[in-house]
Each structure stands twice: as C-alpha cells, then as structure tokens.
Amino acid sequence: MTPGRLRATPAFDALSVLAALAPLTWRARLGTAVLSAAYRPPALAAKQAAVIDVISGGRLILGVGAGSDRAEHAAYGIPFGTRRERTAGLERLVATVRALGEHPRGATVPGLLEHAPSMPPPPQRPHPPLWVAAHGPRLLDLAGREADG
After folding, report:
1. CA 38/CA 70 separation, integer angstroms
2. Does pTM top 0.85 for this prediction?
3. pLDDT tens, position by position, 68-95
C-alpha cells in the first residue's frame, strides 16, 4: 500500500519488483523511496538489497525510512511502534546494511548480528548508497552521520 492509495489499487513489493527489473535494464539506477524498516528484519532487508545490487551490476540505491503509515502497518499485521521504536528500527537497519557491506564474510552488530556473512558482497563498496528519509532531530542526525543521501 502507499499512503492515499485505495486498497483495490494494485501495488507490488518494492524489493521484489527491483529484483525482477534489474536483469531487464542495464543503465537505469534502481531504488526505493522509501522502504520501511519495520517491514523486514534488518538482516533480511540488507541481504535482499545486496542481492539486488549484484543482479543489477551495482545500480541499487536503497532509500529507507522509519515507517509512518499506520493504516498499512495495521493492514499487514505489523506492529506500529512508538516514534522512538520506529526510529530505533531504522537505526538497526542502517547499522546492519553498513556492517554487512563492510564485513561481507562475517559482520557483527551487538544484539543484531554475530559473524553473519553476506556473500557475494554488493558491487558498490562497501554497500549500495543509503538514502534516509528523515523528519525529526534524531533521524536528521542519523541521516547526517550514516546516510549517503
């Protein structure tokens, strides 16, 4: 779902669509604007992004956000945490993407990953560009410190 869309309007999962488009295109950059950190465990989202980057030959841009669509969370049974919880989820996702990209043979993020591999590594080193949707002070700080856009 997309904010403002009718439930009957067709919508596709962003990462699935990018995986399908990647081998059919050869020049266009591919990306998400924005992937909610709440919808996938951080390691799964990071691995999916790395695989799409491999399939596309290094053309992925990973736009991520904390998730703000209460109705979409409810429709799919995803808990809509507090703003602080959603922000923490985005911070975990960013840390995981960065760690797996920087240490593809075995990344560790305390409380998240323990010697987790992500092979093959993404062609864009150390990871696909991370764009962070940010609206409040904590997310703006995260974007300024950790994001590429």
Report:
1. 11
2. yes
3. 888 889 988 999 999 999 999 999 999 9
